[in-house]
Amino acid sequence: MDIKKIGVLGAGIMGSGIAQICAEAGYEVVLVDIAEAFVNKGFQGIVKNWTKAVEKGKRTAEDLEKFKALITTSLDNKDFKDCDVVIEAIVENIDVKKKVFKELGEICKDSAVLATNTSALSITEIGTASCRPQSVVGMHFFNPVPAMKLVEVIPGAETSEETVAIVTELAVKIGKEPVRAKETPGFIVNRLLVPYMNEAAMLYQEGIPAEEIDKAMKLGANMPMGPLALADLVGLDTLLMICDYYWREFGDSKYRASLALRNKVRAGHLGRKTGKGFYDYTK
Ligand code: CAA
Ligand code: NAD
User: Any catalytic annotation for residue 140?
Assistant: First the structure.
């Protein structure tokens, strides 16, 4: 497939990163969210990253202008109608994703591939909601998108091999390394990484300071950042939604979410994106 235009739904942490790297690879991008404030914040974050790259001498001022011109923002999913691929990166909630994929199935052209950046949810369930499950696939990026090499490609039960091939090739074109994963909650990386972050939150609940837990894992296991700093980067709401999904899907008590995590989400402390989580980013 000759991909020219890519739609990205959701301009948050992940959607903005995906839009950034797609524009860098020369694709036209339509970035959509539900409110002007969200698309503006996402777009400004992208421009900030490019400005830093220019300052570091990794990009030129001309690159920045060229990339900026490739992204248009919108509040209307109908603007995806002529996109070849749409990548969804909205809230990790199956009901919201199903509603959105039903709409995408009605709006997008027949040949379009509809990808979801879900962290853990069922690709088959999302595909069924779209009424064109052969064209729906998991395309799971990692945070921060511009810095992380991996994309997990996850077929659902009805996904065609042609759809898998299209997103696998696209992942390479936007500078990523694809790995094919199976449709199981959390696929490969999050099946391992989410229980690790949740267990760190359990230790925190038992009274060990966040700084100590993170220092231990950085120095004792050579992690680039500690599990609680990573949880704050991911977003505690997203992390909790994934934990609760594992709990429901597996019915195994080892996937119970830490109360410390749940209470931070209840208090609205979602990590870096709200300024507070296991750490305070407002100071
Ligand atoms: N946005 C965009 N780019 C960023 C960034 C951000 N928030 N943070 C770092 N980068 C880029 C920098 O611009 C830099 O790029 P260049 O080399 O082109 O200049 C590069 O990343 C390295 O950055 P730094 O040198 O400033 O920082 P670092 O060496 O300390 O690395 C890190 C930062 C890449 C975030 C590193 O700490 C790391 O790898 N942390 C672990 C991240 C991780 O595990 N992510 C997975 C989370 S789980 C997930 O994503 C799945 C899910 O579904 C929840
Ligand atoms: P986020 O909270 O930063 O952003 C989500 C965005 O989606 C918000 O701007 C919100 O306004 C928008 N949105 C919500 N409902 C919408 C709708 N119906 N239509 C259009 N926009 C809508 O979340 P995020 O961290 O970017 O996560 C997005 C998706 O990516 C989730 O499925 C998450 O599990 C997955 N993911 C997250 C990470 C991570 O580390 N944060 C990594 C990989 C995958």
Answer: yes
pLDDT tens digit sequence for 84-137: 999 999 999 999 999 999 999 999 999 999 999 999 999 999 999 999 999 999
Record the tokens describing residue 39, joined without a space.
């698309």
Asked if residue 181 lies in contact with residue 190, where contact means CB atoms within 8 angstroms, the answer is: no
Which one of 16, 117, 152, 198 is the catalytic residue?
Answer: 152
Contacts of 138 (CB under 8 A, 6+ apart): 115, 116, 117, 118, 123, 152, 153, 154, 155, 156, 181, 183, 187
- Displacement of CA 135 from its chain's centroid (Å): 19
Distance 133 CA to ligand 2 centre (A): 21
pLDDT at residue 188 above 90? yes
Angstrom distance (rounded) from CA 10 to CA 118? 12
Q: Which of 77, 117, 190, 258 is catalytic?
A: 190
Nearest Cα residue to atom 45 of ligand 1: 143
What does pTM read for this prediction? 0.97
